[in-house]
Write a structure and sequence with these properties.
Largest sheet of chain B: 6 strands, antiparallel
CATH class of chain A: Alpha Beta
Number of helices of chain B: 8
Strand order of the largest sheet of chain B: 1-6-2-3-4-5
Distance between the termini of chain A: 13 Å
Oligomer: heterodimer
Strand order of the largest sheet of chain A: 2-3-4-1-5-6-7
Order of helices and strands of chain A: EHEEEHEHEHEH
CATH superfamily of chain A: P-loop containing nucleotide triphosphate hydrolases
Number of domains of chain B: 2
Largest interface: A-B, 46 and 41 residues
Distance between the termini of chain B: 34 Å
Strand content of chain B: 15-25%
CATH architecture of chain A: 3-Layer(aba) Sandwich
Shape of chain B: extended
Structural class of chain B: alpha+beta
Helix content of chain B: 25-40%
Number of strands of chain A: 7
Strand content of chain A: 25-35%
Largest sheet of chain A: 7 strands, mixed
Amino acid sequence: MKRVKILVTGPFSSGKTSLIKSVSEIPVVSTEKAVTDETRVIKNQTTVALDFGRLTIDDDLVLYIFGTPGQERFSYMWDVLSVGAVGMVLIVDSADYKSIIEARRYLAFFLPKLQIPCVIAANKQDMTGSLSPEQVGQMLGIDDTVEIVPCMAKDRESVKNVLIKLFELVERTGLAQEDQDAIV
Amino acid sequence: MELAGNIKDFSVIEICQFIWISKRTGKLQLFLEQSGRRFEASVFFMNGGITAAFADNQNGKEAFFAICEAENGSFRFISDENSPETNIIVSMDQLLLEASGRIKLYETLRREIPSTNIIYSLSLEFETYDLVFDSKQWQVIGLIDGEKSLGDISKDLGWPEFDAIRIFYSLLQVGVIRRAAVKQRTDTTQPKQNDPKSKPSFISKIIDYLRKL
């Protein structure tokens, strides 16, 4: 059984859990706890360890989707979760400038460390006042080589499109190993 | 969306960039602290561009730089409030660039050199006759071999990485060195580079599956 693993990461409350829930064939396993700090005003619970979703491609191939903690104080988890991942979705809340600025720090800090293909999902495109993917790209300070995909994390079709873009990128870069047994 | 918070979380430059990109008009009101001194300041925007800044007894660009240099403080954006005067006429690009240069040297260095895993080589194009290097620059030049990363050289020299980054940056600026490659992590658990021509079939399977999902 070949197991392929991707990461979904992004700032606090950007939509990671929703994105995984939209496509996972199993109820998403979330390790969450009630927040106790200023983040309470945004969300009652936050991901502490991980979200976990699964897609069975065929009898010999399974895709695992790991959502990483949304707050910097859990950044130590990255080293654990990123082992063997073939790609990453960085999701940002296009309607929240704090989320976008935070995502820029994620990009600067984590991407050079991980060195895996990454697409950016500009989430909450359906919300009033959200920035367009192009504007999100400008805010993130990235060039045309990084693909920014419009996204509504609660919409299955939209999430499918994001994942397809990611795997097309993985295929183009040739980073994934044919014989990789990616999951821990 | 609401635009308010603390400048410890988001720098003034970041906030201004956001207002610029979202083309807002109004006043960014700030309550700041610098070296124990507290002061109120304001920056006015017209369609995203800064038209005026006021801080203490200063106004214009100097006021804006003082605002950017503040250590602590809070901010909030008040929409559709116009400036009583225009005292900044330079472009946003130029203004933010100048401000960044003054207050964020390290960040500037990091933009050019995002990782200590980068390997540099000596540039074949540069001409030395009009360049003068100091001893630290010579030490770095002596160790650049197209194989060692910036981090490796930093360790060899026993320097803090910041010092090494600063010297590498200075050499990059004059064209003496150029980026050659990025050192791959030796961690065997990471994906390795394959021949791009041999596309992994399981990726194609996943793509097909997602399309039909």
